[in-house]
Amino acid sequence: MEDCIFCKLVKGKIPCNKVGESENFISFLDLHPKNKGHILIISKEHYPDLRGLPEGLGNELIHFSKELLKKVSKATSASDFKFLINSGEKAGQVIFHAHFHLIPYYKTGIASHPQLSDKETARLAEAIRDQ
Ligand SMILES: [Zn+2]
User: Fold this and answer.
1) What pTM, to 2 d.p., does this model score?
2) What confidence tens digit (pLDDT) does each residue in 29-53 have?
3) Which domain holds residue 40?
4) Catalytic-labelled residue, pool 32, 99, 101, 113
5) Which residues are within 5 Å of ligand 1 (an ion), measured at CB?
6) CATH number for the domain that contains residue 91
7) How far is the CA of 89 from the centre of ligand 1 (A)?
8) Continuous segment of H or E residues that includes residue 21
9) What is the number of domains present in the chain?
């Protein structure tokens, strides 16, 4: 979709801190992380929300997510993760291109909403990619 920010991101028209890619998905650091290493996983094709996502992509999504989970764990000291999708406006979806949040949790078990500089964010993305 032409005016979709995630479609632009998939096409490389706007930059992101990419951490991984599979055949049908890409992953990058969330701009407003709940915790350090909070990533988004989005489909390369435009589907407005979970309801439009083809069921055949389920296995790839889970496999890719588990790979990313391991990489984030290695690049940070995260021990636990929350994996969620907001599907629909009233459920908190803001960008209407299907995306999944993978949010790491640390010892405290709380969301710290870290404010990383652009440089720190780029370094973190690189650390996750290199695992
Ligand atoms: Zn899109």
Assistant:
1) 0.95
2) 999 999 999 999 999 999 999 999 9
3) 5-129
4) 99
5) 1, 4, 6-7, 46, 97
6) 3.30.428.10
7) 16
8) strand 18-21
9) 1
